## 1
Amino acid sequence: MSERRYTLTISCPDRVGIIAAVSNFVATHKGWIVEASYHTDQETQRFFMRQEILADSLPFDMAGFRAQFSSLAGEFDMDWRISDSAQKKRIVILVSKQDHCLNDLLHRWRSGELLVDIPCVISNHGDLRGFVEWHGIPFHHIDFANKAAAYENISALFEQHDGDTMVLARFMQIVPPSLCQRYPGRIINIHHSFLPSFVGAKPYHQAYQRGVKLIGATCHYVTEELDAGPIIEQDTVRIDHGDSVDDMVRYGRDIEKNVLARGLRYHVEGRVLVCGNKTIVFR
Amino acid sequence: MSERRYTLTISCPDRVGIIAAVSNFVATHKGWIVEASYHTDQETQRFFMRQEILADSLPFDMAGFRAQFSSLAGEFDMDWRISDSAQKKRIVILVSKQDHCLNDLLHRWRSGELLVDIPCVISNHGDLRGFVEWHGIPFHHIDFANKAAAYENISALFEQHDGDTMVLARFMQIVPPSLCQRYPGRIINIHHSFLPSFVGAKPYHQAYQRGVKLIGATCHYVTEELDAGPIIEQDTVRIDHGDSVDDMVRYGRDIEKNVLARGLRYHVEGRVLVCGNKTIVFR
Amino acid sequence: MSERRYTLTISCPDRVGIIAAVSNFVATHKGWIVEASYHTDQETQRFFMRQEILADSLPFDMAGFRAQFSSLAGEFDMDWRISDSAQKKRIVILVSKQDHCLNDLLHRWRSGELLVDIPCVISNHGDLRGFVEWHGIPFHHIDFANKAAAYENISALFEQHDGDTMVLARFMQIVPPSLCQRYPGRIINIHHSFLPSFVGAKPYHQAYQRGVKLIGATCHYVTEELDAGPIIEQDTVRIDHGDSVDDMVRYGRDIEKNVLARGLRYHVEGRVLVCGNKTIVFR
Amino acid sequence: MSERRYTLTISCPDRVGIIAAVSNFVATHKGWIVEASYHTDQETQRFFMRQEILADSLPFDMAGFRAQFSSLAGEFDMDWRISDSAQKKRIVILVSKQDHCLNDLLHRWRSGELLVDIPCVISNHGDLRGFVEWHGIPFHHIDFANKAAAYENISALFEQHDGDTMVLARFMQIVPPSLCQRYPGRIINIHHSFLPSFVGAKPYHQAYQRGVKLIGATCHYVTEELDAGPIIEQDTVRIDHGDSVDDMVRYGRDIEKNVLARGLRYHVEGRVLVCGNKTIVFR
C-alpha cells in the first residue's frame, strides 16, 4: 500500500504473446510487478490487463514509461493508460440532503483509507455545508431553479477544481445527457436498488410493492439512459414481510454506502475497465 | 420437531384483542403453544397469525378443534386453517431434464428432512425415470406434442394422486392460466433469476448481457402472469467479469436448489400466508 | 415508528397460558399490540416474550401499568420490564483513536436513525475531541497512566451523566471485572473477530496466520471473562489469499461498524434478553 | 471449459522477471494462455502462479512440455507441476452414514459438473451401498472393529484404485497420522464448523452452547493435528435464538455440501497451492 506504484491498464484485440510482450518490457527495465490481472472478453475477443509495478524499480518516470512503451502498444493496437499512485485522483462529490454516503466517504477520506483529493462538494441544498466545511472542504450550494444553468454551473466547478471523477452520492437528480457525454466513465452513481430491478424513482417503494425478499444497491457509471450504465458493484441484504418501506430505507443506507465506497475504490485504483456496457473489475 | 403439532393460521381485519381471544381459547383447553408469530399488513390493515400447538396437549382432534373454534373465528371474520403435522402434505414434482433441484428434493425427502409424501414425479422427458424409480416413486412421462392435452394429463395425475402442491423443479414450461386458476397458492416454481429482474427465458444470458455483479433465484407461487406471482424466497450469489454464462448456470444451480428447498419447506410447514401479491413468511 | 410505544419484556418459567394471560391483560385495557415475539429456551424451560403496545391505546402511564400488571407478574413468577419509547436511553461511548465506529454511531444519531441520547464520549486519547464536540457532545479525555483511577473516573462520569449503557466503540482497553460486575448487561463491546475464534489482541493478525477465508466481527455484552460474554450480533465477510492484514483491517472496519450498530439498536429497542450466557434477540 | 487445457502451477522465490520468463516460454511456442493468476506471499517472499494454456496451441505434449520447461524451472528454483484437463483426477470418497455430501458430490459428478473419476466409495457402514452402486461405482464396506487394520485396508484400496485424492465427505472418523503423512495435500475433509472455532466433536452443540449468531463449515487439507490443516474454503449462515441444535444441523448440511463441493472443485482444477499452513486459491 505504502510504496509508490505505477498502474498500467491495457485493452487490445486478443492474440498470443501479449502477456509475454508486456512482462518482457517490464522485466527488461527491472520493473517489479506486485499485482497482475488478465481477462479476455469472450464476445468481443478483446483482452484486458492491469499490472501494478513498483515505481522505484523502474529507471524512468511516467513520461519515460510512455515514451518507451508506445511502440509496443502500437504493435498490439492497445488502448492503454498508466497512472501514478502518488498523483491522487480528484473527486468532486454531489449530494442532496441525505448524507449517509457523504458521511461515509468523508470518513474514509479523513482516515486515510480513501486515497483521493476532494476539491469540493456540490449540493442543490445548503444543509450539509457545516459538516463539509468542518473537514476543510469547500462547499458549493447550487440553485436548481433553472436546471440547465445549474448543470452549467456544476460543470464549470468541476473543471475549475480540475476534477477527475464526479460522484453522485445520493444526489437524487437526473444528470442531463450533455453532461454524461462530456464525462464518459467519469461520473459514478449509487442507485438504491439491485439493478436492473426498480429503475428510477422510489425503488424501495417499488421493492415493497413487489414483495421481494432481498433489497440491494448498485454503483454504476452514469450514461444517457437512466440507471442503465455499466455496473461497477452491487450488493443485497435480506428483508422480510415485517419490514416497512422505512425499514428498507434504513437497511438500504448501509448497503448503499458500502457499495459506493467499494465501487469508488475500484475506480480510483484503476481496477475498473469498461467493455461495452459491462465492466471488468480487477479486484 | 418430533412431537405431533397442530398448526393454526389465521388472517382477519386487525383490531384489539385478537391475540388475546385466540390465546385464551388455546389456554382454556390447556393447549401448549410452542411457536407463535404475528404480523399486521400496514396497507390493508389485515392481521395474520400462526401458532403451533402440541396436539396431545389439547382434549380434541382437528374436527373437534374446528367445531370449537368456529364461533370465535366468525366473531373476528377470520380466514383460518388448521393442519396436523401427522398428515403429510402430498407434493407432486414436475421436472424436465435438469435434475439438480429434483436430486436435492429427493435427498431431503429420503433423509427425513423434508416431511412430505411424494406420490409421483411428472416429466416431459423420460431421462429421469431411473433415478426417480430407484426411490420407489412412480414416474410419469407425459407427451408434450399436444400441450393442452399434456396439461389435462398433468391435472388428472395430480388429482388422482391426491396432490396438495405442485412443484415446478426447473420444469421449463409455461403453465397455462387455467391450471394457475385451478390451484391458486398450490403451484410453486423456482425461477433462475432474482425477480423482478430477468423474467422469462434464459435469465442467465440476460444477466450476462446486463453485466450484473450478483445473480439470484426466486421461489414463488405461480399465477397467470409469467414470473409475477407472490415471492416466497430469494437469494443471490456474487459473480464477476470472469464468469461466463456457463459459470453462472453452475453457480445458479446451487442457489436454485437451496431457495426452492427453503421455500417449499416454509410452504409445507404452513409458514407462508399470501396477502395480495406478497407473502408473509413466518420463519 | 413514530407513534409512542411501551415495550414489555418478560421472562418466566414456561407453562400453559402465559401468552393468554398477558394478551388478556393488554386487551382488557384496550391496548393495541403492534409487535409480539415469543421464545422458550429448551435447556432451561424458561419462557421469554416481548410486546410493543401503542402507548396512547392504554388508559394509564408506565407507573399505572406497573401497578396494574404486578399481580399477574407475581402469579407467573415473571422477571419483567416496561419501557417507554419517549424516554430515550442514554448511551455513553468509549473510544480510543480509531473512529470508524464512532463516526458511524454519531451519524446514525444525528440523522435520527439511532434514537438515543449521547450525554458524552470518553476517550483515553484526545484525538477525537474536535469531531465529537462538533456534534455538541461533551468529550472527556481520561488519563490512563493510572488505570484503576481511570476506570473510577469513567464510572463516575457514567453515573454523573446518568448513563444507561456503555458502548466500547473500539475502545481497545480491557475493562476491569469490578466495572463488569457493576453494570451487567449494560456494557456493549465490538470485538473485531468472529468469536469464539481469535479472542484477545490482534485478531486480524491471528486470522491471517490461520489462513481463514472469512473474517468477522462480534457485538457482545462485556463480562469478566475476556471476549466471552453473551453475543448479540455477528457477521462475516469473505477475504482471500491476496488480502494482507491491512486489507483485513479495512474490510473489518465495515463489518465492525455495521455489527455494532445493529447490536446497539437491538439493545436500545429492548429486543435483547439475556438467558445464561446467550441472548434472545427479537428482531 | 470444453477445450483441452494444460494447467501449469509454479512456486519459487520471488524476483524480477518470473512472469516474463514463463510467458515468453509459452509465447515462443505459440501457447494460448486462457487464464493466468499470480501471488506473492509477503511473509515468505515466495511467488506463486497458475496458467491455463490451450493444449492444442502448443507443439508438444506434457512430456514435451516437461522436457522443454525444466531448464527454465531450474534457473528460477521452481516447484512446478503441469496437468492435463483430459486426464481426470481420481477421487476416492470416504463416508459414514450421513449422505448429504455424498449425494451432492455424486450428482455433480453424474451431471458432468465435477470432472473427476470416482473409482470407489469407502465406508465404515453399509447403509449407502445401494445408492452408490446405483451410480455404477464400487462400494467398499470396511470393518472398523480394528481401526489400524481398517486404515491399512483403506490405504490399500486407495492405492489399488490409483486414487489421487481422498475426500472425507462427513466420514466422522479421525484419520491416523501415518495416513496424513503418506498423502500430504491429498486428503480433503469437510468440518462442520467455521474453524478455528469448534474443533473436534459435536461442533453444532458447541456453537449452540456458545450462542453464536452464525454457523459455518470448513473444507481443509487433513494434517496430523486435528482440524488444523490448511483451509481451502469456508462459509457461514445466519441462525438465531430460535434455532435448536437440530436446526443448526439442518442448515449446516447445506453449507457443508456447498463448501466441500467448491473446495474440491478448486483442488481438482489445480487452483489450490499450499504455502505453509495456508492456501492460495486462484479462483
Note: Chain C has two domains: 5-84, 89-281.
## 2
Amino acid sequence: MVLSPEVRADRKVVFRLLAPQAESVALRTTDLPAPGGPQMSKGENGVWEVSVGPVEPGAYRYTFTVNGVQVLDPRNTLTSESNATVHSLVYVPGAEFMDANKVPHGAVASILYFSKSLDRNRRMHIYTPPGYEAGQEKYPVFYLLHGAGDCDDSWTTVGRAGLIMDNLIAAGKAKPMLVVMPAGHTSAGFGMRGPGGGPSRDEFAEDFVNDIMPHVESHYRVLADRPHRAMAGLSMGGGQTLGIGFSHLDKFGYLGIFSSGIFGNGTAAWEEQRQTMLDDASLKDGLKVLWFATGSEDFLIQSTKNTIGALQKRGFKPVCKETSGGHTWINWRNYLHEFAPMLFQ
Amino acid sequence: MVLSPEVRADRKVVFRLLAPQAESVALRTTDLPAPGGPQMSKGENGVWEVSVGPVEPGAYRYTFTVNGVQVLDPRNTLTSESNATVHSLVYVPGAEFMDANKVPHGAVASILYFSKSLDRNRRMHIYTPPGYEAGQEKYPVFYLLHGAGDCDDSWTTVGRAGLIMDNLIAAGKAKPMLVVMPAGHTSAGFGMRGPGGGPSRDEFAEDFVNDIMPHVESHYRVLADRPHRAMAGLSMGGGQTLGIGFSHLDKFGYLGIFSSGIFGNGTAAWEEQRQTMLDDASLKDGLKVLWFATGSEDFLIQSTKNTIGALQKRGFKPVCKETSGGHTWINWRNYLHEFAPMLFQ
C-alpha cells in the first residue's frame, strides 16, 4: 500500500500517488512551499512522488493534477471542503497552539437548521467547549465566518478552530465559549453577496440575523446579549462581519476583521447605509474590541487601511495589526489564536 | 463549470468529469446500478459523462477511475470517509425516512477523546437529539458501530444515521437518544482485531469499555445503566457488538447485529470465552431486544444463522430478520431505521 502523505520527523512531507498509466502528475497546493517545483517524479513501481519542506507546522490543503485532472489523494482520508470543491488535508505537527494536545477537547458539530429567510435547510458547524455537553452553564457566542473560497466546514478542518480553542481554553488564555461557523454563501458557485458589492438583497445578512442567531440562541445555553456576542471573519467573512456588525452594533461587543475591509468602491455607500448606527455615540463604548489584522503582502491591505481610516473618522478606535504574509490560512489561524483571547474578558 | 453529480427529478443521476487529456474514465460505485456499464463517454468539450438510473432513493459513494487512478469528483464537496480512502457521495432524495425533512434536527459532533487503552487521541462521532444542547434531561445511549471497510464518519455520511434518527424522533417512533459512533479500527489499514479472529489483545474492546463508554458517561447527560444502553453494528461492528455485548451482558439491554455473526471458525471458542455471562440466567431477562438482520444474498448469512443457533441453544431468544439484498449500505440504513424504534421502549 502506498503511504501518502508521509509527514517525517524533520517536517518534510512526502506525497505519493500510484498512477502507472499517467503521463504527468503534479502537486497542487496553496500554502506549501514546493522548492523542487510542483512536478512529481515517477518511480519504477508506477508511484509518483515529491518531497516538500521542511515546512512550517500547520494544516495544508493539496490535490494532485493527473493528466490535467485535479484529484484528491486516495490514500488520505483527511479532507477539507471549500466552496466549490474538496481538498486533501495534511497536518504537520509542531505548533503547540494548534496541535491536538492532551487537553480537554470540545466538540465540533455539524448542524442543519431551517432558514426561513432562504426557505431551505442550511448547514453550519458549532464548536462547544469542553464541559458544555454535561454542564448547565451559559456561554458567550463567537460567530466566525469563512472567506469566499470556503464553506462552513473550512474553519474546523484547514482552520483548526476547534483545536486552537481547546488549547487556549486549557491554558486559561481564552474564556470557554461557543464558536458558531455558518455558511457564508447563499447560492451555488463562487457568487458573493457581500455587503457593499452585492445585490440589493443581502441574503446572508438576512439568514444570519433572522435565522442563525435565533437558532443558536434558542437551541444552546448561551448568554444572548451584546457583551457576550462576538463576530469575526476572514476576507469575504470580514466584509460580512463589518456589514452585519455595524448594521447591528447594538448586538455585538467584539468585532474582528481578518484580511479584509469594506468591499466595493470606497466606503461612502457603506457608511451611508449604516449612518444611524455609526453616528450613535452611545453604542461606541459597548464595542469592546474592534480588531483588524492583515498581512503586508495581502491584496486587501489597502482595503483594510481605508476601512480603518473611515471608522476612525467616525470616532471608532480600531486596532490594526499588520503582519507578515498574505491572504493565507497560515495567517488566519494565527489571527484566530490572537483574537479569541480578547473576547469576553 | 461542469455540473456533477446532477440528480434529476426522475432519479437519474448524471456524473461528469472534465478530463480532456484522459484516455479512459470509468465510474466506480458499490451500490449504484450502472446499466450502461461503468465506462464513461467523452464529449467534444473534454467532459466525460455517464447517466445512471433511475436509482432507488439513497446515499451512494462513488469515485472515477481516470487512466487507472481512483479520483473523487472535483465538482462535489460531499464526501464519505471509509477506512482506507475517501469517496464522493451523492444523495438521491425520495425516501422520507432518510431525507433531510423540515423537522427538528439533532447535531452530529466530531469528538476527540484520549484513549488510555491505546495511549493516543481517538475520534468518534456523536449524535445528540433535537433539544439536547439547551435541555437538562438525561438520555439513553445507543452505540452504533461501523464495518471493516469503514470508519467513525461512515454512519453519518453514507449511513444517514443522524437524519434517520431525526425523522424517527419527529414521528414519535423512536425515543430521543444519543447515538455514539466510535472508530472500530485500532490500527491503520484494513487489519481487523475483532472478537474470535483477532490477536489475544482485543484493542477495540478495551478502548470501548475503558475509554469510550466512560468518556460518554462523564461528558454527556446520559442514563448510565443497562436499560438505557444499546449497541449495534454492521459486519465487523456486528462481530464487535456480539463480542463486547456478551462479555458485558450486565451492561446492555439491547443488541443489534446487522449482516454479521460470530467471526472465526465456529462459535465454540467464542462461547467458551463468555461462558459465565452466557450461562447466567439472571442476565437473560434484561436483554430486552436481541435482533439480527442479514440479507439473503449476504456472504455472512450462514454466519448469522450459526450464531443465532448457538445463542438459542444457550437459552436466548434472538429475533432474526432475513431481508433481500446483500452486504450493502442500502440494507444497513434500513436496519437502523427498523432497529432504533425498538430501543428503550
Note: The longest strand of chain B covers residues 58-66.
